[in-house]
Batch of 4 targets.
Target 1
Amino acid sequence: PFHDPYDEQAFHPSKTFYEVPVMNPQADRLTIRLLIHSGRPDPEWAPGEDVVDKLDSLVQEVTAGQQVDGPPPPVLGYRGFLVQNLGKRASLPDSFTVFRGIFSAHRGAKTQHFQDTAKIEQFLLEEARGRDLGETLEALGL
C-alpha cells in the first residue's frame, strides 16, 4: 500500500521498524600489535571479522584451562603480541598478551595467565606474516 511520506502517523517513532537495532561497525573491533620495538611504534593492524571470530574461539579454548604463572620477563626484540578489544566484545578480555606460550588475559585491573594450549601465538605469527611482516619476523628468528 502507498504511504504518504508526509503522514506523521506512518513514521511515528513508536512504529516497529524503528526498533530494529542498528549494527555497530565498531562492535567487534580489535587491534593486534606485534611487540618488537623499543622506542619506536610497533606494527599494529585491525584484523578482519574472520580473524576476530577465530581469535574468539581460540581464547575460549585457552581460558577454559587451568591458570599458570605469568610469562617470562620481557627482553629486547620480540615480546609477543598485544590484542586490544576496542569494541568491547563481551566474550573477549579487555586486552590480552601472548608471549612464549603464556596467554595473559586482562579484564579491568585483573590479569589471569594460561598456557597457550590453542596456539594463539602461532596463529598471530601467521597473521603477521600475512601482513608482510615475514621478513621482520625472520630477522628476529621467528
Note: The longest strand covers residues 102-107.
Target 2
Amino acid sequence: MTVSAVMSVSLAPPLLAVCPQNSKYTLQAIRSRGGFAVNFLASSQSDVSNKFAFGNQDKFAGVAWSRSPHIEATVLEDVRAYAECSVFRIIEAEDHTIIVGRILSGAVTDNRPLTYCSRRYVDLVYKLAS
C-alpha cells in the first residue's frame, strides 16, 4: 500500500494513523496481523512507491525487505525511516478505514525523504536541526 499521508496522533503514548481503502488487501492483512509497519521511503525509491501504488504485480519482487522485531511486519530496506505499530484503534469511515497504531519500534536513517507534491515527486532541500 502507498499512502499520501500519515498522521501523528499522540506523543504519549506514541500513536500514528493511516487510512487504507476498505477494498485493499492491506486492510485485511492489518486486521489479521494486529499491526503494520509504515515505511517512509527515501528519495531514491520513487519506483518502489509506484510499484506499491499501482497494478496487481508482485509488489515485493526485486524489493529488499526484512521483518520488524515485534509483529514481523514488512520493513523495506534503504528507507528514510520506519515505524512498527500495533493496532490501537480501528475506525470505519465510509470507503476508507482509519487505523490508529501504537508505535512499538522504528528507525531513522540519513537518507533523504521521498516527497510527493502536485502529482509528482519533488526533491525538497532541508536541514535537520542539530
Note: The chain has a mean pLDDT of 90.
Target 3
Amino acid sequence: MPRFNGHFLWSRLDRVRSREDGMAIPTVLMITTIAFGLAAVAAVGTITAQSGSTRDNRSKTALAAADAGAQLAMQRQNKVATVAATPCVVLSAGNLVAGNLPSGQTWCTGIAGSVGSSTYTYYVKPATGGAGAASVVSVGSNGGITRRI
C-alpha cells in the first residue's frame, strides 16, 4: 500500500496558488454574473415604469368617460321638460322622457352608457322646489380603474 506523502500535496497547492493560470474563467464568470444582475435591475425598473404608465392612461380614460357621462346628463336634463311630479329624465323604449323619482329616494335612477372601451353611469339629483340647480354625479370606468366626478 502506497504511503501518503503530505509534503507532495502541500508543494502542489503552493504551486497552484502562486501561479495565475486558471484565474481568467472565474473572473469572467464573476463579471458576467454582475452584468446580468445589473441588466435584471434595469429590466425590472422599466417594467414597473411601464405598468405605472398603463394605469395612468386607464385612470385618465376613466375620468374622461365620467366627464362625458356628466355632460350627457346635463344635456338630457336641459332637453327634456320636467316638472316637480316627474323630475327625472329616463330612457323609455329608446326615448328620453320625464319620469318619477324612485320611492323614498332623492336621486334619480342611474343611467349607464359607454364611450369607446370605457363605461359610465350618471346619477341626477333634481333641483328641489323648482329653484336651484340639479346635481350630477358620474362614475367612469376603464380597465378596472374607476373615477367619479
Note: Helices lie at 6-18, 24-79.
Target 4
Amino acid sequence: MLYKRSTYALYCLHEETARDASSRQQVFAFSALTGRPEALEMDQLRALHLVPAERWSEPETLQRLVPGIEPGGWHQLARSGLVVVQGSGDPLLDELCRRHEQLDADAWSGLAAVSHFTGRWHNMHHRIDPTEDRRKRDWGMLDAQGASDFLARHGQPPHHFHTIEGVSDRHPLPLVKRYGGFWETLSKRRTTRNFDSTRPMSQDELSTVLYYTAGWAGFLDAVDPVEHRGQAMTAEGVVENGAQLVLRHGPCRIEV
C-alpha cells in the first residue's frame, strides 16, 4: 500500500468557551473527498503535516516520519478523506482514492474543491452505496429495496403542481408572451451536463462560444480604473477575463 496526504482538505481551529470561562480548542478538517467535517486531535494534525502530499510513501516511510501512528491510525484518517491510500483493497478507501485522482485530473483548485463538495446539501437524496461496484452506480439509479424503504419512511414527494392549503387569497399572474429574436432564442435554451464526445466543435463554433460567454463585450466608464464587461467566474472563485477548456489530453487555458 502507498500513502499520501490529500491536498483537497481545509483545517481550522475552533475555540469553545464553557460557562466557567474555561476554553477548549478543537481542530476540524473539511475534506472534499468525503464532503463532511471531521474533528481531529492536535497529534493527528501534527502527524498529517509530516506526510508528503506530492509523492506516495510506503508504510515503512510513514513509520519513520511519524513513529507514533500505526497503520490503523492512517486508515482512520483515510476514511476521513485526509490521507489517500492506494492499493488498500478496501472499497471505501479505493473510492476516495479514485475521487482524489479525478480531482487531480480535472485540475481542481484545493480551496474550490473543498468549498464545492463540503457545501453540498447532505441527506437529501437516496443514493446507492458509494462503496459498491461503480458499474451499478449510474446517476439516478436506486437500490429497489432501499427506495421502497425510503418511501415507506418519508412518504411520496409533493406533486409537480403542489399547492399550499389554507391560503385565503391567490393572485394569478398574467401570461405575458414576448416575441422577437432574443425571446425566441431564450425559449429554445436548454441546459445539459452531458456532451457528445464523438462530435467535435469546429474552430468557428469554439470561437463563437468563447466570445459570447467569456469575451470582451465593451467598456464602462468608471472612476478608477476603466472596467470591462464580459468577465467570467472561474472555478477558483476569481473573476477574470479568461476561459478554461478541458480537452482529452488535459485542461488548457485560452485568453479571449
Note: Residues 32 and 114 are 4 Å apart (CA to CA).
